[in-house]
Design a protein that fits this description.
It is built from eleven helices and 22 strands. The chain is α+β, with helices and mostly antiparallel strands and 449 residues long. Strands 13, 16, 17, 18, 19, 20, 21 and 22 form an eight-stranded mixed beta sheet that branches. It has a five-stranded mixed beta sheet with strand order 3-4-2-6-5, with helices on one face. Strands 1-8-7-12 form a four-stranded mixed beta sheet. Helix 3 runs antiparallel to helix 8. It is globular, with a radius of gyration of 28 Å.
């Protein structure tokens, strides 16, 4: 079991600094041991060398020494010292316990929109228990799915075994039997099939249970993990998880294994340290906040748009900003969401950035949205587009409208705590929206600004 000192926390764009004393929680980040800092630095450099370049930290200088600044990722990192470093989105001005719990609840809610991940099975009631660390929430959900699997029944399979038996069963292996007969005349060397629970699915579940038992600090989780392990006493843990995942069968008799195996894949692939250069290893389970926000907003708005008769297409492609460059179109445009209904078309794009005042709106974002509008909505007489920023209190930032000729850009916020956005109201009454020149709050965007 890991250290019972509890996890460390750092918010998005906070700092992690090394210290030779015990890890401590800083006001703007966390202080870790030198060994943990070296492992985090190695993890950052290894991620930067990848083609995607999705590093969770940025190496920088702070207080006269090296530091790591958290970027736009959230999740949990297992440090070599045994402690967990939890990275949470920066949605609130202060970093206190209530804000931390609210940020964790928002993150869990966004995780439910991820495809090919088991977070979708998180019930809404579990989000109310955001006072637990992320790792404990993941382990608790895995244990719940494993308990449901055991109640439905653990499957066994016929396994070919060879060995000495005091009676003849199965197939007699004559060559091995003759060798054995010189020493033990009362035994047979046979090969036979035995109906055992030793199959890839069960081996993976047991390995994940042992991992949960080693990582968890929660007494209820530890108690539940020990109880569930008793059901797999005749199953050895998986020694090669990758091969066992490939060997898992998909049929109706094993359908009840799917939820537990999805959590097994997440825990074993994400929280099992991978070999790195040096003596320390660092396992991580991190998620891109811009991608989470985009997926979550698209999923929610698609449902709301369908209720109002609109059709939403995510990641709409097929348009280019430049019609011809060296004989071919260039600069591919791909807005996050394209809405269509009865000849009306509008588009929306999400940006992961907390906007608290007008100056927080990036001109680059505005230029991008007008490029989308002029290219993708050129057939519309009045072109409406929406730029959506995250928020936790939608009323703090009023909607803004930027006008350029017949194009209107609406800057809105999406309330992540209540899943509310002003775009749904626009979709309900877009046919009656005033023309671009009649917006009271419209702001003329000068060309070349």
């Amino acid at each position: 079991m890991i250290s019972a000192m509890g996890p460390l926390f750092v918010r998005e764009y906070g700092y992690v600094t090394p210290a030779r004393h015990l890890p401590a929680q800083r006001r703007d980040g966390a202080t870790v041991t030198c060994g943990d800092f070296a492992a985090l630095k190695r993890l950052t450099l290894s991620r930067e060398s990848m083609p995607s370049g999705a590093a969770p930290f940025r190496l920088c200088a702070r207080d006269g020494g090296e530091a790591l600044q958290a970027l736009d990722h959230a999740g949990v990192i297992l440090l070599p010292s045994g402690r967990n470093l939890e990275i949470l989105p920066k949605l609130f001005p202060v970093d206190d316990l209530p804000s931390r719990e609210r940020s964790r609840a928002v993150l869990l809610n966004m995780l439910r929109a991820l495809p090919d991940f088991p977070f979708r099975s998180l019930p809404d009631t579990s989000l109310a228990h955001a006072d637990l660390p992320l790792l404990e929430i993941f382990i608790s959900r895995f244990l719940g799915e494993t308990g449901a699997l055991i109640r439905k029944g653990i499957c066994s399979d016929y396994l070919a075994t060879e060995g000495e038996e005091p009676f003849l069963r199965g197939r007699l292996l004559l060559r091995e039997h003759l060798r054995l007969r010189a020493m033990r005349r009362d035994h047979f060397f046979v090969r036979h099939d035995e109906f055992l629970p030793d199959r890839p699915e069960n081996r993976l579940v047991k390995r994940a249970l042992l991992l949960a038992l080693r990582l968890s600090e929660s007494a209820p989780n530890l108690r539940t993990a020990r109880t569930l392990l008793n059901a797999f006493h005749a199953v050895p843990p998986s020694r090669q998880p990758r091969e066992d995942f490939l060997s898992c069968r998909k049929d109706r008799n094993l359908a009840h294994y799917a939820p537990a195996l999805a959590w097994c894949r997440l825990l074993l692939n994400g929280l099992t340290p991978s070999p790195q250069s040096g003596d320390t290893r660092c396992a991580s389970l991190l998620f891109s906040l811009p991608y989470l926000f985009e997926r979550h907003v698209a999923q929610r708005l698609a449902k709301e748009a369908a209720r109002r008769g609109w059709r939403m297409k995510a990641q709409a492609s097929g348009r280019f900003l430049v019609e011809e460059c060296m004989g071919a179109p260039a600069v591919h445009l791909r807005p996050d969401m394209l809405f269509s209904h009865a000849g009306n078309v509008c588009l929306a794009d999400t940006k992961w950035k907390v906007a608290e005042k007008n100056g927080d709106i990036s001109q680059a974002d505005i230029y991008q949205m007008f490029a989308y509008t002029e290219t993708c909505l050129r057939e519309q007489s009045v072109k409406h587009s929406f730029l959506i920023y995250p928020s936790v209190k939608a009323q703090e930032f009023p909607a803004l409208h930027f006008r350029r000729d017949s194009s209107v850009l609406h800057v809105l916020t999406y309330d992540l705590e209540h899943d509310e956005c002003g775009l749904t109201e626009w979709l309900a009454r877009i046919d009656s929206v005033p023309t671009a020149g009649k917006h009271e709050n419209a702001v003329l965007l000068p060309v070349g600004t």
